[in-house]
Predict the 3D structure of the following.
Amino acid sequence: MLHSTPVRVRFLGTGTSHGVPMIGCDCAVCTSTDPRDTRSRPSIVIETSPGFHVLVDTTPDLRSQALREDLRRVDAILFTHAHADHVMGLDEIRRYNHLLKAPMPAFAHETTIREIRRAFAYIFESDAPKGGGVPDLRLFPIVGPFCLGGQDVQPVPIRHGPWQILGFRVGRFAYLTDCNGIPDASLAMLHGLDCLVLDALRRRPHPTHFSLDEAVVMARRIGAARTFFTHIAHDLGHAETCAQLPNGMALAYDGLSLEM
Ligand SMILES: [Zn+2]
Ligand SMILES: [Zn+2]
Ligand SMILES: [Zn+2]
């Protein structure tokens, strides 16, 4: 049965590539006591249907994120792109191989698959036991919409500086991290959303990420009922930034859970 929208989305991490706090920074956000100002590297888990968990990206913080959220099950992985902050926790997938006694299906654009194979040559070229010594992965290239866990997954090409990477639409939910432009053809895939997650790095412009102002403009254009911003740097304090955002928009934070 196809469900109209996922049942739940959980934010494993909402920070930019350095994480917040940043190593060696004493700024107000890095030293904040508000737990929503602590941001691990960006990732979500989409429960596409009851009990079916799709992990989006495998960050360097995956182990601590999974322990924090007591994430005992991952049925499939979607990769947005192969930047280090999105893939460097791939080795942790061994635990899910063991818990589920199965190889892990992972879906990505063929460019991302090539980069993962290169960055993790020890996984693909090793004679170590699969699922114990190295993760047991099945990589599938994304060539268009496909069905996963009772949902249609729509890949959404987005601009990330000089790169084109993938966001994903699942039902009336969409996740667009690492983004500073959305082509018209992709905007056409984003009508009628209940919930949008969009990159908003900081206030100052950046060559590969939306600034907060740019993200608000884009969020208005897409017009989802609710928008949450992610991939957030230490420039943006959670409480003061949220107080200034338009209705229906907020910064996401680690551990935020959205019931759909
Ligand atoms: Zn700082
Ligand atoms: Zn990136
Ligand atoms: Zn990133």
The mean pLDDT is 96.
